[in-house]
Structure formats: structure tokens, C-alpha cells
């Protein structure tokens, strides 16, 4: 038997409705805010992620699925969505459609890392990107959109953390201070962070190893090095969130794990799923398009892991979606009647009514059991007596109530009854 690859997961038919519910919810809310869907390739040229995400990040350095295609070009499966959206924004001159450009995406991302709860090698993200606005109003709108998604889905015990990591003008002084601080603690740091100290010391602040996390608690904060522009931007954002009654806390050590971030960074964190508690992360990346060869365009956005959203929903018992169920199950008692049931089912489906019929030659009792198991809303039994009298009984499986219907009028009567919620 061939098993599923490590770090991947099947979404089974009995669970797919949960994904559909979450996806339909995020699409609806994206529409509220004027965002339209963009679909980019699952794989891109590796250079895109080297230049966009950053060569010194864990994602690029250790976690990407990279290979050479038959043309000997280096290709990588996308590890996140923002770089591909930025490439598409530049390549398709989307700014010509007018600014701001608001886009969202839903799709898989791939990272080769140790599989654990809430962290898979193939996972799925919902993300939103807003291009063109440098103002904190854009940051506030993106954060408000993410919050509305979480609230609508019913997530509780989720905390919004925000921070500013500065810009190219003020970041160098912070980077220098961070490097100097961690150099004095190098003997107590994990091996990965010792490498980060050389390549990108900012990443040490994001380390989850307890010894490094303890050291990082007293590390310099980017807030202590912000230039006037960055400090003003953060102050205005704080005022906007406060005025909107959107609860948050300033976490001076949030830096996020990607090199393209500038100024605002934020995370929504849940206490219900252990160490992998971040269900949404994002921020501003004003220099990303320029680093990819495009015009310098301010941008802000976020990404949500759908698997983690579903984990939090399961942990909080707040899932409100419903599994799909047929509106009618037609039970037939012999082969000739099954053929007639098949014709009735087609007429009903043509009217937009979901119908199940028996395909397994089961007994009457077994078909009733099946109808109950799949939560059919109504049941009709077709037997010799019903075919002779041209009258059937429609049973409401929830209430047990029955009404008589003319056999020939089943399609029209069913549509009328369903519309009136019999």
C-alpha cells in the first residue's frame, strides 16, 4: 500500500464541508472590504523567493521545496503567498487599474519542516494584500478585516499583538544593537540561532527554543530605535485601533519571520492550540516590489493558516457550519420501482433539489437506516401500493410529520414544500 507523504493530510468527504464553510466565510468578508481574488501559480522561479522572502530566512534557507525543471531552471513550490502576489502585481501592471489594489488568495503553501500539530509540509493559507497606500488607515483596515474573519468564525481567546520593526532608515541601528546583545549570550543559544547571529540576528527574536526565548526577553526592542516617521505611523495606528474598539497589546518583540516586513507587524494568537498558537500574521512591506524590480509601492497584508483556524474552531467547539445532507431520499422496494425513482430524482435535481436514491439494492429497512445516517431531510417510500394508488407519503425525518402527495406531482410539490420549510 502507498501511504500519504509525511507532513500532508487528506481532507475526507465527511470533513470537507468544514473547509468549504471557512472558505466561503473568508470570501464573503473579503468582498465586504472590496478585495478581489487573485490566483498565482503553485510554483515560481526560486529567485522570486530568494529576493522577496530573503535568503537568510529559515523558509528559504531550510524549508523550500526546490528542484530543477527539464530546462534546468530552478523552481520552488511556494512557501507563502505574498511574494507571488507581488510578482503578479508588477508583471501585470495592476497599478494601472487604479490604487489601492486589493487582492486576496486561498491556496496551498509548502514548507519542508518537522511535521507537528498545526504545522504541515503542505498547508493552506488565506491571505489579503493591499497595494498603494502608505497610511496607517490601510494597516487598520487589513487588521480589521482579519479580526472580522476570526469573529465571524467564532474564534475566542484570540489576542492581537502589534509592533513596529522600523524602516531602512532606522533599522540598521536596531540590527546593530541586537547583534551586540546576542553576541554576549552566544554560549547559551541554540545552534540555529548561532548561525542566525551571523546571517540575520533579527530572526533570533522569533526563536521558540526556551533558552533563546528567555535571552530574547531582555533584548533591545525595535521600538527603541524608531525614526520619527515610523514612530508616528505606529502612534496613528494605535489611535485608529483604539477608536475602533479593537483590543490589542503592543508586543515589543514581534518581528515576524520574513525579511520583507517594514514598520507594522502583527499577529493574532490563540491560547487553545499550544505552541503553534499564531492563527494570523501580517504587516507592512513597503519595499517588496522594489526588491523584485518593480516600482517602490507601499503595501500591507496578512496570511492565515486554514488548518490552524480549523484547529482553534475544533478546540473551542464553536464550529457553526453544517455537513451537507440530501433534501430527499427516495426509497424503492424493487428493481422496477428503482428505475422510476431514478427518473423522479432527475426531475427533482433539475429543479435544484438534492436527492439520493438507493444504489446498493438494499432492503427497505436498510434504506431507511441509510437515509437517517446521511441526515436526509425528507423520505418517500415507493412500493407497489404507492405505484398502484399514485399516492406517496412524504416524511419529515426531524419531526416525523407525514403528508400525502400525488405521485405525478412530486417535483412541483417538493419544490413548494421546501420553499415553505415544511
Describe it.
- This protein is α+β, with helices and mostly antiparallel strands and 422 residues long.
- It has two domains: 246 residues, Bira Bifunctional Protein, Domain 2 (BirA Bifunctional Protein, domain 2, 2-Layer Sandwich), CATH 3.30.930.10; 92 residues, Anticodon-binding domain (Rossmann fold), CATH 3.40.50.800.
- The protein has 15 helices and 16 strands.
- The longest helix has 18 residues.
- It is elongated.
- The mean pLDDT is 91.
Q: What tags apply to this protein structure?
A:
single chain, 2 domains, eight-stranded mixed sheet, BirA Bifunctional Protein, domain 2, 422 residues, 21% strand, 15 helices, alpha+beta, five-stranded mixed sheet, Rossmann fold
